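Late entry, evening session. Most of the bench is empty. Finally got around to the prediction I had been postponing all week. Sequence below, unchanged from the version circulated by S.P.
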Amino acid sequence: MTRPEITGRKPGGLTQTTAEVPATGPPEVPRAAYTIAEFCEAHRISQSFYFKIRQLGLGPRECRALNKITISDESAAEWRRATTILVRAPVWRID
């Protein structure tokens, strides 16, 4: 291969022009639902605590489709409002 200073071409060839074009992927789809693991991570609670509050009937509403459990954004927001109200109410204890 000839040296760029002899041929007068820029070193690197086509890689420079393709590097200038910004890489765009598909548009980001807004989240519609959480898995239990994603819900716990987003709300900074452990999965064991999630299952405890679910057993007490204090967890968010769940959608069960086939073998998958999801929690919608609306259910998560409703759960946050309900637990905020619970914090203002008398203290409840989970053993």
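Two things to note before I forget:
The beta strands are 33-35, 63-65, 68-72.
The first strand starts at residue 33 and ends at 35.
Will write this up properly tomorrow.
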